[in-house]
Automatic annotation (TrEMBL):
CDD domains: Mand_dh_like (cd12168). Residues 50-376 form the D-isomer specific 2-hydroxyacid dehydrogenase catalytic domain. This is Similar to Saccharomyces cerevisiae YPL113C Glyoxylate reductase, acts on glyoxylate and hydroxypyruvate substrates. Coiled coil: none annotated. It comes from the Eukaryota. Belongs to the D-isomer specific 2-hydroxyacid dehydrogenase family. InterPro entries: D-isomer_2-hydroxyacid_DH, D-isomer_2_OHA_DH_cat_dom, D-isomer_DH_CS1, D-isomer_DH_NAD-bd, NAD(P)-bd_dom_sf. The keyword Manganese does not apply. It holds the Pfam family 2-Hacid_dh_C.
Length: 385
């Protein structure tokens, strides 16, 4: 990427593009023909602040791509204070904006825009995939199959009645006789297994089980549609119930809960699909985990800090939670070491919405916001502050 080279078309609004943008698209053609623009990769806070005072001192908009301001520790008050007076708009490819200091930007008269409306379908697809994986234990079957290379051996190897709660792994019949605490009666596996048990845990269909969805906006409702389609009973918790019109538009039955505690008590599967706020920070903790049905399963596609990871690990070790699928993490981008070791935790690197359709659609929304803001009626399309 060129560093700090100004490209100038006929019109004069100047955009600072932070990060990589998809090329050879109509969106980029529109961007490059309607705006003057700099392209820049963030390296350090000191260098960026210096360039805001020099090279970028006259930019009118900042387009932040998927990496955002993370390379320099975020868009905190120090960075906001050094933004040039010419800056009128920051547009982001992401849906979430809790990390973009919207209130401080508003005080400076800077419009902040996100890129909503694209993530619901792919995120719901991801939740459906992880739901089936948790109930059917497919990642464990795959892991053992790759080791043994035999379907029969794989099913038999993990059909023991033993589960190591400390490591989150089933005891394996072919090797557990070497364990000091091996018990033939407890850990015995049949000569042939259908694959209906994994370490003494039943492999079940999601059909007929209850799912509680925390957060029932566009993403939560799409998740509900996917899980209702495979026969799950949908419950949801949000600050207020859907209107009668919204309920009718769902196309499936969903039971409202006015409190988180109430929703947790019926959630054999719990899906977190809400933003991070001061109220939702560590909403799953030692007290609230205890409210879940024994053996519950958990999926988090919201924000990592919705969950107290230490409390989750305690719940997994105790068998209160028998499986978790996490796409976001409390210490993101880093993942807590014990989560990496456990087979009862399915891990994905914050990719629930990651498709080419999402990527290019978000870029188009960013350009639309800038075009409308500078060359249209002056109003952004998706302002969030």
């Amino acid at each position: 990427m060129p560093d700090c080279t100004l490209t100038t078309p006929l019109k004069s609004a100047k955009v600072l593009v932070l990060g990589d943008v998809t090329r050879k698209t109509d969106t980029w053609k529109q961007m490059s023909t309607q705006f003057s623009y700099y392209e820049y990769n963030l390296t350090s806070r000191e260098e960026f602040i210096h360039k805001l005072q020099t090279t970028f001192s006259d930019v009118n908009a900042i387009w932040i791509t998927w990496e955002g301001f993370s390379p320099i520790g975020g868009l905190d008050d120090e960075i906001v204070a050094h933004l040039p007076s010419s800056l009128k708009m920051i547009v982001s490819c992401a849906v979430g904006y809790d990390h973009l200091n919207g209130a401080a930007l508003a005080e400076r008269g800077i419009t902040l825009c996100n890129a909503p409306g694209l993530a619901a379908a792919p995120v719901a697809d991801h939740v459906l995939l992880q739901t089936l994986s948790l109930f059917r234990y497919t990642p464990i079957f795959e892991h053992i199959l790759r080791r043994h290379g035999s379907t029969n051996t794989t099913r038999t190897a993990i059909s023991t009645s033993g589960w190591d709660s400390e490591t989150g792994r089933p005891l394996q019949h072919l090797c557990n006789q070497r364990l000091p605490d091996y018990d033939a009666a407890r850990d015995h596996a049949p000569r042939f297994s259908l694959g209906a048990y994994v370490g003494g845990r039943e492999v079940r269909q999601p059909r007929g089980h209850s799912v509680g969805i925390v957060g029932f906006g566009a993403i939560g409702r799409e998740i509900g549609a996917r899980l209702a389609s495979i026969g799950m009973k949908v419950h949801y918790y949000k600050r207020s119930p859907l209107t009668s019109e919204e309920t009718a538009a769902l196309g499936y039955e969903a039971t409202y809960h006015s409190s988180l505690d109430s929703a947790l008590q019926v959630s054999e599967l719990l899906v977190l699909a809400c933003p991070l706020t001061s109220d939702t920070l560590h909403m799953l903790n030692s007290r609230t985990f205890a409210l879940l049905p024994d053996g519950a399963k958990l999926i988090n596609i919201g924000r990592g800090k919705l969950i107290d990871t230490s409390a989750l690990l305690d719940a997994l070790r105790a068998g209160k939670v028998t499986g978790a699928a996490l796409d976001v993490f409390e210490s993101e981008p880093n993942v807590e070491p014990e989560l990496l070791q456990r087979w009862d935790v399915l891990l994905t690197p914050h990719i629930a919405s990651s498709t080419i359709e999402t990527l290019q659609g978000a870029e188009q929304i960013c350009v639309d916001n800038m075009v409308n803001g500078f060359y249209g009626d002056g109003l952004s399309v998706t302002r969030v502050n």
